[in-house]
# Entry
Amino acid sequence: MFFKEQNVGKSDKLKSLSSDKVESEKLPVIEFKKINPTKYRVRVHNVSGKFPLVFSESFHDGWKAYLAKPSNFQFSISNFQTNSNDLISKYKILDGNEEDQASKDELGDFIQKGWVADLGNGKEKTVEHKKWEDNKEKLDYVEKYNIGFISKNFQGTVQSDNLSSGNIFETWLPASKMNDPKNKSGIFSGAGKVVELTEEDHLMANGYANSWVINTEEICKGRSLDFARDDTYCVKNEDGSYDMELVVEFWPQRLFYLGLGISGVTLLGCLVYLAYDWKKIKKNVILNNE
# Structure
């Protein structure tokens, strides 16, 4: 639900959404991972046409959405669907997640439908289970697993902790979205690994939430889907729909990382200077004693 009063100056976007209604059976499925409170990785499966991607965090201009290249996918979806049985055999529901975590049969169904396209590296991992004893939190036992948490399908949304976390710099130098019709190289320019969606596409939904208008016609159709090309951001499915990956991030967090980096460099510089000064003083003392 969108209100004009909360999206001033974006009436054209609102009109385009109202005129391009998506049938419920054609709605895309969202696969996501919460990397940290300020960064999420999102894969949109079986998308076509135009639709709003609603992100249920309080609206703020600091939240940005970036298209990531398909090269960030660890493998092609069709190949994954064919060779996923070995990985599924290692899958287990973690203790305490029986109500929310997908079963093996559900996971197999997700994979066949193209809703899950990453099960991680398959290496053994551990999770610590705690218990409360003598008014203290103590270690109860350690559980081993190979494939991270994958939720059931809740209203077209699947949480998967197996998606890549990326790195803190992946969105720092995005390519630019071009609106100039004279740009014959495509709608994107720049050498970045991601493309930032414009603020014009950023709307307030449901009275409080962030949302972005995803226009498949603009992003995917009419463009080469050769993975070797640097300007490709979509993977085409057999039914003509597309899969794409986005990173949603609260960009002011970068200021914290930048400040932390500057502080670290400053501290290192001070330590180097103190070490040099101490060595110099020690050398002078030795010379004076001689």
